[in-house]
Amino acid sequence: MSLSAGTTQPVIGEPEVVEDVRLVESSGAWRRLKAAATALQPMQVKNGAIPDSAQHEAARGHVDTIVGAIRALAPLFPHDAAYLDALSRDFARWVDGGFGEPDFLDSLVEFQPQRHRVDGTRHLVVFPMYTQNGSSERHVEALLAEAIWPDFIADLEAGDYGNALFVSLRLLDFTPGYDTNSAVLFPETVAMREIPRFTWGAIFQDREAARYRRVVAAAADVTKLALPEGAAALLEDQALAERTFVMWDLIHDRTHMRGDLPFDPFMIKQRMPFFLYTLEELRCDLTAFREAVRIQRTLDARAAAGEELTATEEDTRRHATLVQYAVLFDRIFRFPITGSRVRNYDGLGGQLLFAWLHQQHVLEWRDVELSVDWARVADAVVELSDRINDLYWESIDRPKPVHWLKAYELISGVLAPNPASAWAAGLPREVLAGPPKGYTDLVMDDEFPLSMFYEALDKKMRPVIESTAGIRGTAA
Questions:
Q1: For 265, how many CA atoms within 13 A lie in the half-sphere containing its CB?
Q2: Predicted TM-score of the model (pTM)
Q3: For the chain, what are the domain ranges?
Q4: Which terminus in the chain has less CB density within 10 A, N or C?
Q5: pLDDT tens digit string along 207-238?
Q6: Cα–Cα distance measured from residue 395 to residue 377, given in angstroms and rounded to the nearest whole number
């Protein structure tokens, strides 16, 4: 059955017949599944268990509804057949075990969306899980999603930007765990008895694109920024923005595994100053930016020399330009004023990029208007990328605390630290001579507060930022 072609197959055992995978989100089976999963959530404690035996009878009824709906809908997802079969067994084991801490390892191992990266391919996903930037408690969540995989992305991934684990998705419908800021689906969030080798990670580019369009449109209006044609097109076209974010995220995601990295990669979970995560995430975004510049300039040069580009190459060239706008404006407009000021490493990265460009006179705030010297943006952003890459390259010759100090030196050379900062004043000798924990303990939650520009922007933009929680692509 070709899902993208809309081939139909009946579902047996349902009062209504769902004949097209594109109609799943409006089907009775999906509505029952979603309602039953939502009803289970208040019964579950933080680890996903249901310890109150008085609730077990009702919980069994909800699980029966979920499993029945999964079986009814399964024929529409033949590529996920093994996963959906395993889901029924994992739910049965959870019920038979008295609703203890759930273990969905078997079904997680069978779920392999990276094997089906075909534009429009849909997935029914059900797991007890927490949602990043959403709930920290493991609830049974259910969602419908479909792949975003245009031809130019397939060509990029098959060429210089191979990333077999990367999955790009569009959210279609979801339970309350995704009625939040969460725009990712990661296997490590699932309740399971042991950690397998993870083979995929998914990002919902439709949500990223929708947030971007709403926030950047409002921020450009507030700051009176005149947008170039390509940047304006992103705000008008949800599908165009989604494809742009797929390209950005494809390159960003693979960058975590490549380059001159510290021997101990930042992605290993450990306690360290939050601004180290700032630099890692910003490094990956700026790598996506600089690669987009390289791709655009290469294809521009070929076209200028009279070479006829293929349709896919033209698509790639256009999106390479748009990735630069997306990275720039998402980073400087949305990131700094989203979330709390408690160790907000992504927010700090946006602050750093804005201040860097302002100090290079690429961005100017004059007469209560923001302006950009577009001819200089690309080279200025690449220069900041070079600074971070140099810090990484030098890191393997330094002790960890010295690397941390040098990272702080880079950031504090651009951004003003908190006036009360012990790091800015110089750490005491006993801390410098002690274990790394002492360094981390003295980092303030808001080590680099918002500038006056961002304080003012935050006041005007707060309702817009808050309105993007749970946003869908169709509502941007």
A1: 12
A2: 0.92
A3: 21-199, 233-475
A4: N
A5: 999 999 999 999 999 999 999 999 999 999 99
A6: 28
